[in-house]
C-alpha cells in the first residue's frame, strides 16, 4: 500500500465549511499558515497543554512533572516526496527517538501528520487505509497493521549500564473525531500517533533522582492516569467524556489519595469507554461517522488499570515489561519484543 499515492487521490475538502470546535479551528488555521516544522511543534504543543484530556500529555507538553516528549512533524512536503522518502524519514525519527529514550532524554513521542487533506477527512474506509499505511511505515515489524488490535512499542532505557525495554502504548488521534463517539481523541492539524511508556517514565524518574523509589513514581503516575479518565468532552456543550470511571467501593483508593476530579468510590481496577483505549485503530469509530450522544455505541466496561503496580510479572505475561524492563543486549536497542493482541470487549481479555 502506497499511502502517499492514496493521499494524492483523496479529495481536498478544505473548501468546505467544517468546524471542529473553536479551539481546533483556530489552531488549524495557524498550522496551515505555517511552514516551519519547529513552529508547528510549538503550535501543537500549545494546544495539547490546554486541551488534551490526558494529564500525562498535558504535562509532557509543558515539561512539567519531568515527562520528556519528542515531536516529529510530517507535512505535505514529506508526502509529496513519495513513499520511500516517507518511510525513510519515519524510520529515522523512530531510531532517533529510541536513542533519546535510552539516554533518559525522552519518555514519549508524537508523530504529527500535519497534512492538509487529513484535517477534513472524515471517518471512512479511506481514513482507515491512511492510518494503516502510516502505521506500516513506522511499525514495520507489525505490517500489515490491522484495526481493533492493541499494538505496543518498546521504549529503551539504560540503567546502571544495562539496557531495558519498556512497553509503550500506541494510539491515533485525529481532527475529524470531533463530536463523534471517539471525541476525546481529537487533535488539530490532521492526525497524531501518540506513544508513551509509563514504565519508562517511572524508572527514568528514579534514575534521575526525581522519585525516591519505583513505588513512589508509579503511584504519582497512577494518580495522573486516574485524573485522565473521564476528563474529556472538551469543547462539547454537555462536556460528555467518552471514557468514565466505574464505581466499585470495594476496590477504591483511600480518600486522601483520590484526586478531587475523580468520583468517590471509583474503581482502581476497571474503567469504561466508548472504545478500547489501547487499540491503535478502532475500526468502527475510524470507519464510520458516529455521534458522541448515540446511546447505541458499544461500551467497553472492563478496561483495566490494574497494571499500575511495581509487582514483577513473569516473562511471557502480557504485563511483562510494563514497570520492570525487558533486559536485552545494547545491540537490541531497536528491537520490539511485545506482541500485538486483538481487542475483545470481554472481562476475560487480559492485556
What can you see in these coordinates?
By secondary structure, this protein is of the alpha+beta class. The protein has one domain (1-351). Helix content is 32%, strand content 19%. It has eleven helices and eleven strands. The strands form three sheets. Strands 1, 2, 4, 5, 6 and 10 form a six-stranded mixed beta sheet that branches. The longest helix is centred in the N-terminal third of the chain and has 20 residues, at 83-102. It is globular and about 55 Å long. 42% of the residues are buried.
Main beta-sheet strand count, sense and barrel state: 6 strands, mixed
Name the overall outline: globular
Number of strands: 11
Low-confidence stretches: none
Tally of helical segments: 11
**Rg value:** 19 Å
Order of helices and strands: HHHHEHHEHHEEEEHHEEHEEE
Strand fraction equals: 15-25%
Q: Residue share in helices?
A: 25-40%
User: What's the mean pLDDT score?
Assistant: 92
Q: How far apart lie the N and C ends?
A: 29 Å
Provide the domain count: 1
Q: Structural class, judged by helices and strands?
A: alpha+beta
Amino acid at each position: 500500500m502506497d499511502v502517499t499515492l492514496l493521499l494524492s487521490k483523496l479529495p481536498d475538502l478544505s473548501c468546505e465549511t467544517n468546524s471542529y470546535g473553536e479551539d481546533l479551528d483556530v489552531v488549524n488555521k495557524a498550522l496551515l499558515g505555517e511552514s516551519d516544522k519547529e513552529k508547528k511543534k510549538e503550535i501543537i504543543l500549545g494546544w495539547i497543554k490546554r486541551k488534551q484530556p490526558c494529564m500525562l500529555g498535558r504535562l509532557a507538553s509543558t515539561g512539567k512533572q519531568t515527562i520528556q516528549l519528542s515531536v516529529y512533524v510530517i507535512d505535505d512536503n514529506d508526502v509529496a516526496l513519495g513513499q520511500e522518502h516517507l518511510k525513510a524519514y519515519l524510520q529515522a525519527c523512530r531510531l532517533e527517538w529510541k536513542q533519546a529514550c535510552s539516554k533518559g532524554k525522552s519518555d514519549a513521542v508524537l508523530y504529527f501528520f500535519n497534512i492538509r487533506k487529513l484535517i477534513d477527512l472524515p471517518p471512512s474506509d479511506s481514513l482507515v487505509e491512511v492510518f494503516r499505511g502510516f502505521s506500516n511505515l513506522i511499525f514495520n515489524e507489525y505490517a500489515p497493521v490491522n484495526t481493533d488490535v492493541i499494538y505496543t512499542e518498546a521504549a529503551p532505557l539504560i540503567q546502571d549500564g544495562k539496557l531495558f525495554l519498556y512497553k509503550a502504548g500506541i494510539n491515533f488521534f485525529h481532527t475529524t473525531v470531533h463530536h463523534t463517539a471517539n471525541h476525546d481523541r481529537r487533535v488539530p492539524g490532521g492526525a497524531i500517533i501518540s506513544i508513551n511508556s509509563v514504565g519508562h517514565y517511572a524508572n527514568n524518574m528514579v534514575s534521575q533522582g526525581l522519585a525516591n523509589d519505583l513505588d513512589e513514581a508509579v503511584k504519582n503516575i497512577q494518580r495522573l492516569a486516574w485524573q485522565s479518565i473521564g476528563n474529556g468532552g472538551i469543547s462539547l456543550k454537555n462536556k460528555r467524556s467518552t471514557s468514565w470511571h466505574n464505581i466499585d467501593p470495594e476496590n477504591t483508593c483511600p480518600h486522601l489519595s483520590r484526586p478531587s476530579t475523580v468520583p468517590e468510590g471509583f474503581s482502581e481496577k476497571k474503567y469504561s469507554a466508548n472504545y478500547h483505549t489501547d487499540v491503535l485503530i478502532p475500526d468502527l469509530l475510524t470507519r464510520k461517522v458516529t455521534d458522541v450522544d448515540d446511546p447505541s455505541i458499544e461500551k467497553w466496561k472492563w478496561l483495566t488499570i490494574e497494571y499500575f503496580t511495581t509487582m514483577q510479572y513473569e516473562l511471557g505475561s502480557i504485563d511483562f515489561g510494563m514497570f520492570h524492563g525487558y533486559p536485552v543486549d545494547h545491540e537490541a536497542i531497536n528491537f520490539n519484543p511485545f506482541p500485538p493482541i486483538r481487542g475483545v470487549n470481554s472481562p476475560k481479555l487480559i492485556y
